[in-house]
Amino acid sequence: MAQKRSYTGLIIAAVVAAVVIIMIISLISWYVSARNTLVRMDEQVSASWSEVENQLQRRSDLIPNLVNTVRGFAEQEEEIFTSIADARARLAGAGSVEETAESYGELQSALSRLLVIVENYPQLRSNENFIRLQDELAGTENRIAVARRRYNEAVRQYNTRIRTFPTAMIASQLGFEARTYFEVDEEDMEVPEVDFGNDG
Nearest Cα to 184, choosing from 112, 132, 127, 115? Predict the structure, then answer.
């Protein structure tokens, strides 16, 4: 009888040990999976931000050509050219998402003013080089908008994941911090409607 109880006790101990081992393995598996997911999401945010920076750089590279074309027709508009150069330099030197968004808004505002003054120069509006540059700039603005939307979506998913239980427990332990959205003031995003037709 004592031997039967000892045998039953061993079976119970083995079952409890097996359950504990399975729970530990499951917990380790969840931890590794959650950590790897956070790493992938963090990398996706970084990759999305790189695409935003690539498009901002492409746009920044187009601006000197656009300014030089306009300058050939409108040298007296030096104030706007200086404003664009200053905003472009601030954007190039931006060190964070917030600084980039602020500099982007300033540059967008300066470019909008440039497009408004172009209305006063009919020969410029019909210049092939200006038209081509303006089309390239418009295409780049569309790419920036798409890249910005993708980046913000990646940030939203990542930030949601690191704040959601139970992942939030390991996210803070491993040093995963919320990422910043690339937000631009609505006024800065509005490009004035300017007709560059050849009717002038």
Answer: 112
